[in-house]
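2024-03-11 09:14:02 DEBUG pipeline.ingest accepted 1 chain
2024-03-11 09:14:02 DEBUG pipeline.ingest length=174
2024-03-11 09:14:03 DEBUG pipeline.predict start
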Amino acid sequence: MNLNTALLIVDVQVNMFSLNNPVHEPDDLLENLQKLLFLARASGTQVIFVQNNGEAGEPDETRTEGWLLHPELEIENGDLIVQKKLAEPFTDTELHKLLQSKGIHKLIVAGLQSEFCIESTCRKAAELGYGVTLVSDAHSTYPSSEGSAEQIIAKVNARLKDVVSLWRLADVEN
C-alpha cells in the first residue's frame, strides 16, 4: 500500500450482518477488513468507504439502520464515503474524478457482495485503467443458486484472476 493507492471498502453495511441472515463468515470478514484499514492508514493509503443507497423497502434503504456502515469499521478523519445506487461505484458518482484529483491509480478492493458489487467494481475499475487488487479473503456473500458462499467467492476470484491481482490478507500485510 502507498500514497497512489486507495483502499475501497464496498457496501459493508449493517443489513449484511443481520442476525437472521448474515453474510458468510461475518466475524472473519470484519476482522480482515479491520486489518486492512489499519494497514492502509499506517501506510498513508486513502481509505474510501462505498455505501449503497437502496430503494424504499430494501434492507439498505437510504437513511435506515440497515443502510449504515458497519460500526466495527470506524471512520477516521481523512476517510471518504462515496454513495452509490448501482452495483459499481464509478457510474453516476464522483469517485473517478476524486481518485484522479488525488493522483490515485491503484485500488485495493474488499467488502460485499462478491458476485455483485465486488466483481462489478473490480471490472469497472480495470476498464477505467486502474491497477486493481482484490483481497481474496476480504470479500463475502450469501449462498444462492450459484452455490455455497465459499463456492461463489472462489468462482469470483477465479473469474477475476485475469482482470485484477489477487492477494490474500497475508500478502497485503507484508
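2024-03-11 09:14:41 DEBUG pipeline.report The longest strand covers residues 131-140.
2024-03-11 09:14:41 DEBUG pipeline.predict end
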